[in-house]
């Protein structure tokens, strides 16, 4: 098939999904936030006390989990077994446990399968940690995003604090540092830059500048 796939990977809170949403909107591509899928699985595991070392429980849980995206406005709208969970998956209980859940091989195998299905025939922008390396190794455009850790924590804090008034900057910074460490050092599909991914350090770039940078890379394939 000749559909276009744009893969955006990088550290936590680097603005991957902000850029992915803007691109999808501009190009009329499908936007998929793969992190939301791992977050929704994590929410299910927490609610159902799934033991992360019990492979039978994990397999049974994965069979019972049905995820759906409703990205009518290029935002992340995800349902877990028909329940809208888009807000709940951003809260700290999920953020604190998602790296452990996403390190489980069976979880990754199932999510990757679903992600590949979404990108089989449609133009798509997907952001995550292993999109350019594992999910779509043949993506036409791969971006690897990074930014200064302090700037990332500030951005994420601003985003979270309106709904979570009790949250502290230290807590956000620690969570990002912990997830980056876990995501880059795990055995299963660690976060790493694909050889052919273009680095986009957005520490000093506005969202508009990032969008233009990415559009310039995608243009030749349109
Ligand atoms: O993108 P977001 O920060 O919401 O992702 C949450 C977590 O899900 C990441 O810290 C990582 O552990 C996991 N993840 C992953 N592979 C992806 C996307 C997210 O392991 N493709």
From TrEMBL:
SUPFAM superfamilies: P-loop containing nucleoside triphosphate hydrolases (SSF52540)
Origin: domain of life: Bacteria
HAMAP family, alphabetized: Cytidyl_kinase_type1
A biological process term (GO) from this entry: pyrimidine nucleotide metabolic process
Protein name: Cytidylate kinase
Coiled-coil segments: none
Organism from which the protein derives: Mucilaginibacter myungsuensis
The keyword ATP-binding is annotated on this UniProt entry: yes
Chain positions recorded as ATP binding sites: 10-18
Compartments where located: Cytoplasm
Catalysed reaction equations from the record: CMP + ATP = CDP + ADP; dCMP + ATP = dCDP + ADP
Keywords for the protein's UniProt record, in alphabetical order: ATP-binding, Cytoplasm, Kinase, Nucleotide-binding, Transferase
EC number: 2.7.4.25
Pfam families, per database record: Cytidylate_kin
MF annotations from Gene Ontology: ATP binding; dCMP kinase activity
Family: Belongs to the cytidylate kinase family. Type 1 subfamily.
GO CC list: cytosol
Domain Cytidylate kinase stretches: 6-218
Gene label: cmk
């Amino acid at each position: 098939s000749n559909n276009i796939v744009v893969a955006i990977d990088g550290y936590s809170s680097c603005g991957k999904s902000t850029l992915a949403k803007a691109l999808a909107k501009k190009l009329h591509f499908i936007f998929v936030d793969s992190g939301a899928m791992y977050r929704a699985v994590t929410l299910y595991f927490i609610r159902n006390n799934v033991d992360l070392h019990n492979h039978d429980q994990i397999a049974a849980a994965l069979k019972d989990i049905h995820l759906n995206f409703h990205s009518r406005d290029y935002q992340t709208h995800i349902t877990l077994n028909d329940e809208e969970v888009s807000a709940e998956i951003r809260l700290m209980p999920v953020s604190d446990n998602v790296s452990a859940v996403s390190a489980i091989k069976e979880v990754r195998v199932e999510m990757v399968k679903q992600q590949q299905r979404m990108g089989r025939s449609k133009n798509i922008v997907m952001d995550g940690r292993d999109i350019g390396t594992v999910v779509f190794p043949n993506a036409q455009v791969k971006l690897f995003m990074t930014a200064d850790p302090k700037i990332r924590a500030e951005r994420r804090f601003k985003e979270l604090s309106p709904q979570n008034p009790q949250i502290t900057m230290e807590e956000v910074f620690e969570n990002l540092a912990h997830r980056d460490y876990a995501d880059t050092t795990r055995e299963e599909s660690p976060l790493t830059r694909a050889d052919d991914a273009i680095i986009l350090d957005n520490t000093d770039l506005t969202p508009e500048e990032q969008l233009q940078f990415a559009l310039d890379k995608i243009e030749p394939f349109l």
